[in-house]
Amino acid sequence: MAARVVDLRTDTITKPTDAMRAAMAVADVGDDVRDGDPTARRFEAEMAALMGKEAALFVPSGTMANLVSVLVHCDVRGSEVILGDDSHIHLYENGGIATIGGVHPRPVRSNPDGTMDIDRIVAAIRSPDGVIYYPTTRLICLENTHVNSGGRCLSVEYTDKVGEIAKSRGLKLHIDGARIFNASVALGVPVDRLVKAADSVSVCLSKGLGAPVGSVIVGSKAFIDKAKFLRKTLGGGMRQVGVLCAAAHVAVRDTVGKLADDHRRAKALAEGLNKIEQFTVDSASVETNMVFFDIVDSRISSYKLCQILEKRNVLANPRSLKSVRLVLHYHISDSDVQSALTCFEKAVEELLMGGTESEHLADGATKNSYGY
């Protein structure tokens, strides 16, 4: 029997549950581009209601969800979007808003908690007086949870404040809510309240929720009507998409209530890693399903560590030469956490004894792969 692999690289590697597969097998489907797919329509209506918005649209990926959202709001080339310099849209989506949409990013420094300072956001908004020289600010983007901050949550108070600024300046607010349900559970705030100030939200179904494919965009009916047109333009107009929406429906129904367990296990993992002399973890920053830890021993690199862990059936991604990102999901049990901690301890022992010289990871992972 093959040894169990504890995969902590990301929460996108989950396999669909039996319930998801069963729902896919019996889904009532149609041509979503021509006449509409009945299962997709029901799922989109459910997601819109859950998020407190008028309408929703299923798209193949989070990258497309964010790209479509930005392009709807910034429908004039030369528009500008204010976003965090450490945000997913800015770093990990191939620069699509600029290369495809002609939208200029205006990055503002991201804080360790995933926020941008309010005064910096205000300062980044272009004055109409300089319109002949500058792009026109049309949109502000937030990210909740914030991946490069270790899955930190943006509070409803902060989000409301940014929404007030956007509204007062005639701008729109988009939330990259790839893991918005993780934020909702961690903060104890209903998800519709958490995104009330937003004009649009993208929600990834294949990350924390564990669906096999897809994201949804939510917003006003007028916004979604435009988004549907852009989805087709970008190649995201699929046909019998109800097969995927059926699995996504089960993911939302069954997984949201289990996210607190992922968060609890992430805390346990962080506390266990902190007991290893060669590591340090800011336990207070572990709010959801991610753990970032630093290596404080000069003899150990993250690349060597991850290589030894892989030999012991624990998969992890380096974040930099001296840091590693771990992500919990519904495939990870309490016993997996304890098993992983034992493997970390043994890997450190092996490395301190000079057990490996290779800096190369077998799966070809690089320090940039943690952004997904």
Automatic annotation (TrEMBL):
<feature type="domain" description="Aromatic amino acid beta-eliminating lyase/threonine aldolase">
    <location>
        <begin position="7"/>
        <end position="294"/>
    </location>
</feature>
<comment type="similarity">
    <text>Belongs to the threonine aldolase family.</text>
</comment>
<dbReference type="InterPro" id="IPR023603">
    <property type="entry name" value="Low_specificity_L-TA-like"/>
</dbReference>
<feature type="modified residue" description="N6-(pyridoxal phosphate)lysine">
    <location>
        <position position="207"/>
    </location>
</feature>
<keyword id="KW-0456">Lyase</keyword>
<comment type="function">
    <text>Threonine aldolase involved in threonine degradation to glycine. May play a role in the removal of L-allo-threonine.</text>
</comment>
<keyword id="KW-0663">Pyridoxal phosphate</keyword>
<dbReference type="GO" id="GO:0006545">
    <property type="term" value="P:glycine biosynthetic process"/>
</dbReference>
<dbReference type="Pfam" id="PF01212">
    <property type="entry name" value="Beta_elim_lyase"/>
</dbReference>
<comment type="pathway">
    <text>Amino-acid degradation; L-threonine degradation via aldolase pathway; acetaldehyde and glycine from L-threonine: step 1/1.</text>
</comment>
<protein>
    <recommendedName>
        <fullName>low-specificity L-threonine aldolase</fullName>
        <ecNumber>4.1.2.48</ecNumber>
    </recommendedName>
</protein>
<dbReference type="GO" id="GO:0008732">
    <property type="term" value="F:L-allo-threonine aldolase activity"/>
</dbReference>
<dbReference type="GO" id="GO:0006567">
    <property type="term" value="P:L-threonine catabolic process"/>
</dbReference>
<dbReference type="InterPro" id="IPR015422">
    <property type="entry name" value="PyrdxlP-dep_Trfase_small"/>
</dbReference>
<dbReference type="GO" id="GO:0005829">
    <property type="term" value="C:cytosol"/>
</dbReference>
<dbReference type="InterPro" id="IPR015421">
    <property type="entry name" value="PyrdxlP-dep_Trfase_major"/>
</dbReference>
<dbReference type="InterPro" id="IPR015424">
    <property type="entry name" value="PyrdxlP-dep_Trfase"/>
</dbReference>
<dbReference type="InterPro" id="IPR001597">
    <property type="entry name" value="ArAA_b-elim_lyase/Thr_aldolase"/>
</dbReference>
